[in-house]
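Section 5.1 Outputs to date
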Amino acid sequence: MANDEHEVNRSTRSGRFVKDSTAQRDPEHTVTEHVGGEHGDQDSEVNRSARTGRFVTETTADLHSSTTETQHL
């Protein structure tokens, strides 16, 4: 990985950043995001509630588009 790219862990419950040790302890409720640089040819998207910061499904994002943000990773 280049200097500007790294991975971060977020709680799927709160949307907050968490430490690696937390991600290892609770992998069901943690997602690892690749930040910065290129990540091959893969473009992935995640949807978050603009109100809570929590991850939401694509269906929820479609139903509540005015209060959902889509992030490209």
